[in-house]
TrEMBL record:
<dbReference type="InterPro" id="IPR013149">
    <property type="entry name" value="ADH-like_C"/>
</dbReference>
<keyword id="KW-0862">Zinc</keyword>
<dbReference type="InterPro" id="IPR011032">
    <property type="entry name" value="GroES-like_sf"/>
</dbReference>
<comment type="subunit">
    <text>Homodimer.</text>
</comment>
<protein>
    <recommendedName>
        <fullName>alcohol dehydrogenase</fullName>
        <ecNumber>1.1.1.1</ecNumber>
    </recommendedName>
</protein>
<keyword id="KW-0520">NAD</keyword>
<dbReference type="GO" id="GO:0005829">
    <property type="term" value="C:cytosol"/>
</dbReference>
<dbReference type="InterPro" id="IPR013154">
    <property type="entry name" value="ADH-like_N"/>
</dbReference>
<dbReference type="GO" id="GO:0004022">
    <property type="term" value="F:alcohol dehydrogenase (NAD+) activity"/>
</dbReference>
<comment type="similarity">
    <text>Belongs to the zinc-containing alcohol dehydrogenase family. Class-III subfamily.</text>
</comment>
<feature type="domain" description="Alcohol dehydrogenase-like N-terminal">
    <location>
        <begin position="40"/>
        <end position="172"/>
    </location>
</feature>
<dbReference type="Pfam" id="PF08240">
    <property type="entry name" value="ADH_N"/>
</dbReference>
<dbReference type="GO" id="GO:0046294">
    <property type="term" value="P:formaldehyde catabolic process"/>
</dbReference>
<dbReference type="GO" id="GO:0051903">
    <property type="term" value="F:S-(hydroxymethyl)glutathione dehydrogenase [NAD(P)+] activity"/>
</dbReference>
<dbReference type="InterPro" id="IPR002328">
    <property type="entry name" value="ADH_Zn_CS"/>
</dbReference>
<dbReference type="InterPro" id="IPR036291">
    <property type="entry name" value="NAD(P)-bd_dom_sf"/>
</dbReference>
<keyword id="KW-0479">Metal-binding</keyword>
Length: 386
């Protein structure tokens, strides 16, 4: 169907959504209205969504600057395109898709560079609360008296959502949608950090700070690359069980130590430290220990965790003269529109076992239970079916 015809055909949809109305309060399951997609936008019927720590942080209101209520959170999902707006050339109704919070317009100087996945127009921005095309919302209360704000380009805690086509990736319709939802953030971020940003090679040593879904995905990626030593650091000993399956060879619980973590890592690695460290916890102390645990001369620390407080880096400038480096890594370095569909195919072919990241499955109406599971450290990913 021609996209102009599809845009005229699309009508307002009333559906269920989980609405955040205040920080830390249970999400409210409500009927909302979802407007048709406008220029370069698509409307997606969400089939599966899951909860990431970024959603948890926003729900708790940990960063006051990003508070906006009412708001529909969520950014890990999979679904099928219900309708398309004008100007959409690479997607059609019925396409199976994965929303991505870190988009790729394909036209800017950043998108044209092979060495970055930044896109000023559609990159991750938790402060952004409206659509890019016109600065307005597509969600409304059932009686249309109250606008409902967007989140991270996607807002997947809704049966239907409107997303710019730059933040939607088409996938093979034969791929299982439930598993594909994991590629919207956590798994892609962890594996991509190892494969793309760090480009870990066989025989190298890594340390991972924080063994949530992102950290375990980094471990899976390191194991697949043939890392000789994968050290996992976490204060929750229950994470070590999953970590062993993911490929972690050594475990460190900072609560059980009398010496700094980086000293223990240096000892475990024969004195020099690891080639790469991945900070996935969002904790400043962990970031410092991750940096100090890397090898002098070439060690690289990748910052993956979300730090919500306005604190500065816990590193003295002179420490950088030892040759160790620190870089931030968004979405694992993946260019979503360009590279994610190929990664999905690799996962289906067995490069990454996605099943190990799903610890719980619940119907969408029980989303608050899923939030609590993540908050309590009892789940990696709870997949919600809509």
């Amino acid at each position: 169907m021609d996209n102009k015809v599809a845009a005229r055909k699309a009508k307002v949809i009333t559906c269920k959504a989980a609405v955040a109305r205040a920080p830390g309060q249970p999400l409210s399951i409500e009927e909302v209205q979802v407007d048709p997609p406008r220029w370069t936008e698509v409307r997606v019927r969400i089939h599966f969504t899951s909860i990431c720590h970024t959603d948890l942080s926003a729900w708790k209101g940990e960063n006051e600057a990003q508070r906006a209520y009412p708001r529909i959170l969520g950014h890990e999902a999979s679904g099928v395109i219900e309708s398309i707006g004008g100007g959409v050339t690479d997607l059609e109704e019925g396409d199976h898709v994965v929303p991505i919070f870190h988009g790729e317009c394909g036209d800017c100087d950043y998108c044209r560079r092979p060495d970055t996945n930044m896109c000023p127009k559609f990159g991750a921005n938790p402060m952004k609360k409206t659509m890019t095309s016109d600065g307005k919302v597509r969600f409304w209360s059932k009686d249309r008296t109250e606008p409902i704000y967007h989140f991270l380009n996607t807002s997947t805690f809704s049966e239907y959502t409107v997303i710019d086509s730059s933040c939607v990736v088409k996938i093979d319709p034969n791929f299982p949608l439930k598993k594909m939802s994991l590629l919207s953030c956590g798994v892609s971020t962890g594996v991509g950090a190892v494969w793309i940003t760090a480009d870990v090679q066989a025989g190298e040593k890594v340390a991972i700070f924080g063994l949530g879904a992102v950290g375990l995905a980094a471990a899976v990626g390191a194991k697949a690359r043939g890392a000789s030593q994968i050290i996992g650091v976490d204060v929750n000993p229950e994470k070590f069980i999953k970590g062993k399956v993911a490929g972690i060879t050594d475990f460190i619980n900072p609560k059980e130590l009398l010496t700094p973590v980086h000293k223990v890592i240096q000892k475990l690695t024969g004195g020099g430290g690891v080639d790469y460290s991945f900070e996935c916890s969002g904790d400043l102390l962990a970031l410092r220990e991750a940096f100090l645990s890397t090898q002098m001369g070439w060690g690289l620390t990748l910052l993956l965790g979300v730090h919500t407080k306005p604190d500065t880096l816990p590193i003295h400038p002179m420490e950088l003269f030892n040759g160790q480096r620190l870089v931030g890594c968004v979405f694992g370095g993946f260019k979503g529109k360009t590279q994610l569909s190929d990664f999905a195919a690799q996962c289906v072919q067995g490069a990454v076992d996605l099943d190990q990241f799903v610890t719980h499955e619940l119907p969408f109406e029980r989303i608050n239970e899923a939030l609590q599971l993540l908050k309590d450290g009892k789940s990696l990913r709870c997949v919600l079916s809509l």
